[in-house]
Amino acid sequence: MKFKQVLLIVAISATSAVGSVALYNKFTRNPVAGVGTAENGLPANYAGYFDGKVYSPADPVDLTKAAATAAPAVVHIKTKIPAKKISNDLPRRRSNLDDFFDNFFNDYGPNIIPEQRASGSGVIISEDGYIVTNNHVITNEANGNVADEITVTMSDRKTFKAKVIGRDPNSDIAVLKIDGSKLPFLVYGNSDQIKLGQWVLAIGYPLTLDATVTAGIVSATGRTIDINKRNTKKGETPIESFIQTDAAVNQGNSGGALVNSDGTLIGINSAILAPTGTYAGYSFAIPVNIIKKIVGDIIQFGDVQRGYLGVSYIPTDGLNDEQIKSLGIPTNIEGVYVSEVPTDGGAYAAGLKKGDVITKVNNTPVASGMQMSAQIAGFRPGDKVPVTYMRNGKELTTQITLTKKATPVVTNISARLGGDLATLDKTKASRYGIGGGVIVNKINPTGVLANAKIQPGFVITGIITSEGEMEISSLDDLNEALQNRFGTVRVTGVYPGYGEAYTVPLNLGQ
């Protein structure tokens, strides 16, 4: 009997304890942030998860080894670009004062670009003295004049005279050579393996400073900022597929090294987006996979060996919804619309057709002509490149053998553009309220004009290229503006009777 009483007392005590704990939790315990009860009685919480454990911060990335490895191979480049006289056929009235000031100021009048001195950075890529830098470091962008005196200073203050081996304005790459042996140099990495968020170092000679190392992370890859257009050769396509970082880069850093945490070269610092002219958080480097192919071509062949797919194209990112619909392109596809496939190119032999949309080149997605060109830039004529494209809703892949670019001799601009064109007579031009132009009388349904959706009756009044806008008043003007030009240009003009002026992209092929 006593035993049963003991059990009863224990049971009552346990029940009281449970009840007390429940009441304590309900009324006195501090609530957990983010926890509540839904209308259906189920517990509700925010999606964030906190396990209550305390963690120490991760060890920072050690970049000292990378800096010590790479810095000795980065050099300071100083250039002297000679004065250049600009020919000008315009008559100019002169006075005795003009002659006096010309003599006093060494004849640096309005038709003379004076001698220029500039500086930048470069990277030694071989122990016998080959150096890669930016083309704009050794070239006057205003007139294309190349430096006639280049001095290279190493981190140990040794100086060398350098000569230009070759340069490629399309990619903004130049190769120099100094006489030396057993020089420190950087090893090429693989820029295709770069990951967003990885740590990088930018090394160069910014402003008036000595060798400077800054750190940052990779913010983006495959960036296009349209900066190389202004120096691209006529009829060529600029090559841009920049690595974007937040490593501080300023004037003078151009041509310097972008290295990974191992000190391996992954890019050449080339540009900044800077509203004020100085670093504002965005710097851009040319990927090393583009560099090593172009540099190899220049050293081995003396110029760049470029392969071509053999298509005329329209990037889908440059089309509006109406144009995409009229071309029959699915709205959920990004790529390059094939507008024409010449029969003598590699694309034709591989089976590509007008209306296909190229989505990948070399297994890399492409959404613009420049991205496509950047992928092809790593190959030479004769190389086979995998190309993925969409046709009738199906994804297909083929191998295209790249060909050399054939430079056509344009004798008939009407035939090249695919239309019946004529110089607009002065009477009609006056009636339309324009100074002149070229009128499109008929359209070849498979030609360049038809691909641009230009209709008969359109009057071409101008051509816009990366070099600026050219006024078109006659067929001769149009022929001169487009002769041996490729890629995409913009045509300006009017439809008589409609007050609005039009600007239309015109793809002239590769």
UniProtKB/TrEMBL annotation:
GO terms for biological process: proteolysis. Gene3D superfamilies: 2.30.42.10, Trypsin-like serine proteases (2.40.10.10). Residues 298-366 form the PDZ domain. SUPFAM superfamilies: PDZ domain-like, Trypsin-like serine proteases. It comes from the Bacteria. Keywords: Hydrolase, Protease, Signal. InterPro entries: Chloro_Bact_Ser_Proteases, PDZ, PDZ_sf, Peptidase_S1_PA, Peptidase_S1_PA_chymotrypsin, Peptidase_S1C. Residues 1-22 form the signal peptide. PROSITE patterns: PDZ. One of its GO terms (molecular function) is serine-type endopeptidase activity. Belongs to the peptidase S1C family. This is PDZ domain-containing protein.
